[in-house]
Write a structure and sequence with these properties.
The complex is a heterodimer. By secondary structure, chain A is mainly alpha-helical. Chain A contains 34 helices and 5 strands. In chain A, strands 1, 2, 3, 4 and 5 form a 5-stranded mixed beta sheet that branches. In chain A, β3 (about 140-145), α7 and β4 form a beta-alpha-beta unit. In chain A, α25 (about 505-515) runs parallel beside α33 (about 620-635) and α32 (about 605-615) runs antiparallel to α33 (about 620-635). Chain A is elongated. By secondary structure, chain B is an alpha+beta fold. Chain B is built from 9 helices and 5 strands; from the N terminus they run αααααβαββαβαβα. In chain B, a hairpin with a 2-residue loop joins β2 and β3 (about 130-140). The two termini of chain B are about 30 Å apart. Classes of the chains: A mainly alpha, B alpha+beta. The interface of A and B includes residues 54, 134, 170, 361 and 364 of A.
Amino acid sequence: MEDGTSFGETTHELLLALAGRVDDDLLGRARELVAVGEDARAVELVTASLVAGRAVLPERVRSALVAAARAARTDLDPGAALPKADPEDGTEHRFAAPADDDPVAGALLALPARALAGCHVLLARRRTPAGSAPGPVPHPVVLVQAPAGGRPTEVLAYQIAVALERADVHASVEVLSPDGALSEYHAAALRSAAPVISADDAEPAFAEVPRPAPRRERETRPEPEEQPAARRQVPDTAGLLRPPVQSDALLGDVLPSVRAEREPEAQEADRRGPERREPARPVAVPDATGEARGADDSDDPATTSAMPASIPAASRRPAPEREQAEPTPEPPARPAPRPAPRPVPTPARIRRPTVTPISRTSVPNPIPLVRRGGPASIVRPMAPIEPEPEAELPVDAAAAEVTEPPARESVPAPDRRPADAETPAFHSLSDPLNGPLNEPLLAPLLDPTVHEDDPLAVGGRLPAEDVAPPARADHDDWSADWLSGTWAMAPSVLDGPPRERDQAGDEVADTDFEAEEADDPVAEAEPPAPRPAPGRPARHRYTDEPASPEPVAEAEPERPRLELEPSGEALGLRPESLSRLSDADRQLLARLQAELLEGRRPRVSRRAGIGNGVGPHRPGNNGVGNNGAGNNGSHRSDPPDLAG
Amino acid sequence: MTSPDVACHDLLVRLAGRLPDELLWRMRDWLADGGRSVLGATLPRELLRHRVGLTDAERDLLETAVGEWGASHRLLDAVLPALDPDEVTVTFRADSSAADIDAAALSVLAVVRGHPGCVELRQGWRQAAGTPGQRVVLVLGAERPWVLAGTLQRVLRAHGDRTPCVEVLPPHGKPPAYHRAAIIGSTPLWRSAAALADA
C-alpha cells in the first residue's frame, strides 16, 4: 500500500514520513536541526544517510526527498543516487505496548507540564530495527498528538526529545500533526501504544488550545515541573472502551528526582497512594470509532486515514483526587472540569531517579584504588619495617622483639636495633603520647644530648629539667664540639686527653663499625670494658626513622659488640663520661682511636661528622641520611678508595 | 598510490577527537557502506562548519579521497590549514576489570578475530568534563579497515553505544596524538597469535 502521507510541505512532515527508514538518532538529530531552523542541514544529513544506505523508498517519499535535497542545495543528488522507488504495503515495523514500569513513561510524566500542554502522549515500543545502523530494540517511540494551533510540531518534538534526553532517556518523539494523515508506521505504533498523558478532556483535543488557567499557574510557580491536575486527572472511563493506564503502573518506581524532591507532593502521594491504585493496565486501544482493540491486536487493519482523536490516556493524577472530590463510586461519563491544577502527588517509592542505562558507562573508578593506598601512607613508614628486621636479625634479637609487639607497631625502629632495648629511653616509647607524629618534638626532649643543640630550638621551648639527666652539662660540651666538626680535623687529638665530644660520633657509624671491628686488629687488641651504666642516650632517636630497606641492613647481631667494647681507660674518658656512652659509642671511639694510631687521616670520621652534624635534624633527614648511612659502612671501611 | 577509500579512512581516523562523535561515526559508516559521493558532498562541508583545520598531509588525504568523489574544489580550498594537532584535551582510562568485558566487547572481539590482518584489539574509556565515559575501541592492523570500522560501529550501536568510537589503525607507524593517548589509556583485549609469535 502506498504511503498516503501528505508530506512535502514542511521538513518535519518529511521527517515523519522517514520515521523507521533511518536510524532514530539521525531522525532526532534532523528534527533538532529543523527546530533550530537549519532545515537544509537536516535534509542533507538525512539524504546522505539514505543515499549511503541505498534505501528503497516509496515514490512519494522519494520524490519529496529529492525535492527537499534540491531545495536545500546540497551537493547530493538523491534522484540519481537512490534506488528506484518501490511501493510498499504497510510497514515492516512491529510495535508493542510498553511495560507497566517503563522508564520512558516515568520520564514523560515528569516532564514540565507546559511542554505537553494539550497533547495526547502515547508510548509504544518498537521491536524492529530502523536504519542501517540501528540501536538496541525494543526502542521507545513517543507519539504526541499535538493540538491544532499549538506550537510547531518540529519545535515540540525537539523540546520533548531534549527533555527526555536530559532525563537520560533516549526515545524517538513523533509529534503528529492534527491535520495530517497517519503513515503506516505511526498507525502501527498507535495501535500498540499505551496512553501516558491525556489532553484536558476526551474530546478531540487537536482543535483546542491549552487552557490558559493551568499555564498561568504553572508559570507563577517557582518549579516549572509542577504539573497541572487538569492534565493528570483520570479521564472519563465510562465512555471509553478500555480502562486508562494505571498511573501507578506507569509511574512504577521510576520518576525523576525532580518530582521526588517535592516533599509536600510526596506526602500527598503517600497519603493517596493506596487510592490511586487501579487494577487495569492497558489491554485495549480504542480506535477512532471507539471500538475496543486489544493491545495485542497489532495485526488488525488500522485506520490510518485519521488520527485517533479520542484515545484514552492515563493521567498522572488519576482517580484519587476525583474520588475525593466526587464521592460517587462511578466515574462520570465525562471528566469533571477541574478548577485549578494541583501539584502532582508523588509516591514515596518513586523517589528513585529515572535512569535508563543504554550504554554501560559506569565503569569501575580507579580513584578508589588510589585511595586504597592512600591510608597506607600513614602506616607506610612502619609497614615494611616489621618483616625485615625479623628476617635479618639473629634469633635472640628477634625473640626479644616478640616481647613488645605493640611497641613494634608504633615505633618499629628500636626493634631493629637490639641495643636500644637496653636503654631506658626506649621504654618511654611505650608512652602513648610518644607517637610517630610526636617523635620530632619528643625525641629531642627525651634526649639530653640533643636538645641543647637543636637548631630548631625545639628543646629550648620545653622545660629541660624535666627530661634532662644530671650529666647534661657534659653532653653540652661534647655535643657542641661534635657538631662543629673540628674534632675530627684536630691533629692534637693523639696527644691530648680523650675528648668527650668523640662520644657522639656513633650516631650513624656505630652499627657500621660493628661489622668491621671484627676484622680490625686495633679494636681487637683493646679489651672490652664492662659497661658502667646501661643507659645510652639518644638511641631512641632512631625510632623516628622511616622505614627503608637500608636501615634494616644496619641491624647487626649483638655478638661482636661484647667482644669489642673498649674500656674507659683505653678511650681516655672519665668514668662519668663513659657512663654516658653506649656500646656503640665506645666502639666508635675505639675505632677512631685505632685509626688515629695508625696515622690515617680521619677522613672517614669527618664524613661521619658531616652526617652527624645533622643529628638533631635526623627525623627530617632520615629518608636520605639513613639510606646513605646504610652504605657508608662499606665506604668508611675503605676511605682511600673513595678519596680516589 | 593511496586509494581514495584508504585515504578517506586515514583522514577520518585523524579526525577523531576533532569532529563530533555523532558525525564522525556516521561518516565512517557511510564510507563502509560505499557512500563515496555522500562523503564527497558532506565531508568538506562538515570540516568547514566545525572549523576543523587540516595539516598538509591531511589535506592531501582529503583531496585524494573526496577530490575524486565529486567534492567541490571551492569547498576543498576553503578548508582551514592547521598545524599538526599534538594536544589532546581528553583523557583515556583503561579498565582492566572484568566488568568492562561486557557483551559489546565480546561482540567486537568476535568480529575482530575473524577479520583478516588484525593484530591487536584494545579498549579504553575516554573521559571528558561533563560527559559520561565513552568507550573507545582500537584495532591495530586490518585489511580494508574502513569496512571493519563500520561493522564494529554497528555492533556497538546495537549494544546501545549511540556514538561508537572505533579507531582502526595501521599496525605500524606513529599514530596521531589522540590515538597515542588512547593506546596508552586502554587495555588489550586480544592479540593475534601471529603477532605474539613475531614479537
